[in-house]
């Protein structure tokens, strides 16, 4: 069976979808009407040839940037399980940052920002650590630890009856 070719707009949608994985925004950026973008984006994601193009483009990008899931999870783990006491000390005498040259790569990974402000009255240092809770949440989602309420595991059988109108079949 021949591979179905994407239209120009579908190809643009695939390219735009890779930016933020937002089908509505991708449809708008690809040139579809903003009024119908939500429905169009949703419909495009159901088309097998569009899905295949997205998967292929994502695989190409992974190869290009040479980033693996393992690397992403490892970096999140550095943030999630890092200990702030490894990069700074605090107590009655104030706060002292450890020199960056003394930090291991794992310790440095949890640091989001360091800034220094100086004024005539002195100065201050600011150390911002990446969000541990968010990193834990992302790891948990990756590992399937948090199941969305809309998902159900059903063992055995499930019978769903939907009826419209009265029991005689009249509307």
From TrEMBL:
GO terms for biological process: chromosome organization. The keyword Zinc-finger does not apply. Pfam families: Terminase_2 (PF03592). Keywords: Viral genome packaging, Viral release from host cell. The keyword Iron does not apply. Gene3D superfamilies: Terminase, small subunit, N-terminal DNA-binding domain, HTH motif. PANTHER family: TERMINASE SMALL SUBUNIT, TERMINASE SMALL SUBUNIT-RELATED. This is Phage terminase small subunit. The lineage of its organism: Bacteria, Thermotogati, Synergistota, Synergistia, Synergistales.
């Amino acid at each position: 069976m021949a591979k179905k070719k994407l239209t120009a707009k579908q190809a643009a949608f695939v390219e735009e979808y890779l930016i933020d994985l937002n089908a509505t925004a991708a449809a708008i950026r690809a040139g579809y009407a903003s009024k119908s973008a939500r429905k169009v984006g949703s419909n495009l994601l159901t088309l097998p040839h569009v899905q295949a193009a997205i998967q292929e483009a994502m695989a190409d990008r992974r190869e290009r940037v040479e980033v693996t899931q393992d690397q992403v999870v490892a970096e999140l783990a550095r943030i999630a399980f890092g200990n702030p006491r490894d990069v700074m000390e605090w107590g009655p005498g104030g706060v002292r940052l450890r020199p960056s040259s003394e930090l291991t790569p794992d310790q440095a990974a949890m640091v989001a920002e360091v800034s220094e402000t100086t004024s005539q009255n002195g100065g201050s240092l600011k150390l911002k650590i990446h969000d541990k809770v968010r990193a834990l949440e992302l790891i948990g989602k990756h590992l399937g630890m948090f199941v969305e309420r809309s998902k159900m595991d059903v063992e055995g059988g499930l019978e769903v009856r939907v009826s419209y109108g009265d029991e005689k079949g009249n509307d």
